[in-house]
Amino acid sequence: MTTMHSPALEAPARPRRRWPKPTLLIGLALLLVLIFAALFPRVLAPFSPTDFDYEALLKGPSAKHPFGTDNFGRDVLSRVIYGTRVDMQIAIFTTLFPFIFGTLLGALTGYLGRWSDAIVGRIADLVVVFPFLVLVIAIVAVLGPGLTNMYIAVSAVGWVSYWRLTRGEVMNQKKAEYAQAGKVLGYSPSRILLRHLLPNAVTPAIVYLMTDMSLGILLGASLGYLGLGAQPPTPEWGVMVADGKNFMATAWWISTFPGLALTLAGVTFSLIGDGLADALRPRA
Amino acid sequence: MHASYVIRRLLQIIPTFLAVMLVVFLLVRLLPGDPASAILGDRATAEIVERTNRELGLDKPLPVQFGVFVRNFLQGDLGDSISLKIPVIRLIGERLPTTLFLTVYAAVLGVLMAVPLAVLAAVRRNTWVDALIRAVFQVGLSLPVFYVALQLLSLLGARLGWFPIGGYGEGFGGHLYHLFLPALTLGLNLAAILVRTLRNSIIEVLTAEYVDFARAKGLRSRVIMTRHVLRNALIATVTLLGLNIGALIGGAVITETVFAIPGVGRLMVDAIFGRDYPVIQGLTLTFAIIVSLVFLITDLIHARLDPRAELT
Lengths: 284, 312
Known about the structure:
Low-confidence stretches of chain A: 1-9
Distance between the termini of chain A: 20 Å
Number of helices of chain A: 11
Shape of chain B: globular
Structural class of chain B: mainly alpha
Structural class of chain A: mainly alpha
Largest interface: A-B, 45 and 48 residues
Oligomer: heterodimer
Low-confidence stretches of chain B: none
Number of strands of chain A: 0
Distance between the termini of chain B: 13 Å
Largest sheet of chain A: none
Mean pLDDT of chain B: 86
Strand content of chain B: under 5%
Radius of gyration of chain A: 24 Å
């Protein structure tokens, strides 16, 4: 376009339609597979995840058992598929409560500022001084091993990142014209905060949620591996890697396939996180 | 670096330590039932439980107990291990050097992997080299530490026999050799965390105006790389290393468990299964103190390398 024109009179340029990057699409496709496996493991799995078969102990990958069998004759493929449900549950519950709590708290203290912000800030500084894994396993040690206690422990620690992200964003947004306009119109602070500021300020937290889900799966699997998370015979991927650790030399498949499933799930969430960060980034 | 900044930063550590102690103190009080029963087990008689409570000072009000806890800590007394019957402070003193060796070793390997690759990715940004480096480390970030540890152990340790499959070894060379696989495991994890942020911060420098200016005034690119780009990459690396010390310690807990290394990480896991609460308490405290000291050192180094940091 070569004609001169006044930008002020021009209709706001429609944002150029950007196709999501292939990484985001790959991530979403993988997520669909994981969700399907988590919801309908029976459809995909050829065997039960917990039935012993003493006729087929420690058998290598074959047509009948593509991922082999473990030392109880359980089909590793079926256990990996059923494990999707457990590990997806871990991804959701290790992040959902920290997300909700951290985001709301961040919106509140970012909006109110002053002492509420200072107090929560001190607490957040304190929480990050403890290595995440150490604090979580210390809490689990006190409460007792198991998934529920792990969720409690992670929630006590994991809210800080969401709080930081949302707080910073709300502090920026509250200076914006639309927030001031709401004030002038006489809207109540809670309406401005929940209906206007929060929807605009929650983007970084949502992007981080995806990354955090991959961290949550890793954490859950690590605790499972150490014996502090899901308890056997639950087909949880970390537990399965631990089950196979003594057979690495003779039956590598027992640990290797659940570990690959873990990696795949981690990559899925980080691809989606990156893709979302890219797609939701405000365009200049 | 101004003295006032250093003093202010040093003074900040005191309330942090006190708060850390309070958290650790309260953590063990979260135990269902009273700690003495938890320590002694179900079969202890009421009389023994009461006596233990008195011996441990658990019959006094909480603030008094906390005062005693802080006083004991200042005197270097963290209580005795229940299972090993020796002072927790001695136990930690014996095991901590191993873990420090491992984490420093891992940090060195991690930086040696991350910095050159991040520079390469930044210089060749948006080419296939960059894409490959980023993809590899993206997958690396999703690899669980215990899984990498187990695979390296089984492949390079057990199958090929290149490295020992556990233990700490004798002397500096022995430590280097014995801890190579664990340090590599942790280093790979650290490198995966570092590469991406480093790459972006190097790109920021490479495209900054002062680098354009340096080019325009005819400085050789080698000079630009060392004086501007690497210097800033160094600042970013120090900050990132400091921020990720917690992840490194968490990784050490897992790695030491997989490789059977007699450090504090493995001690922590053993203590949890032995319900050895004084040890768990002492270790949690130690880790938090290490992290806050590393944060302090990072801030001071950062302030030395980048004078603007004092203002925040």
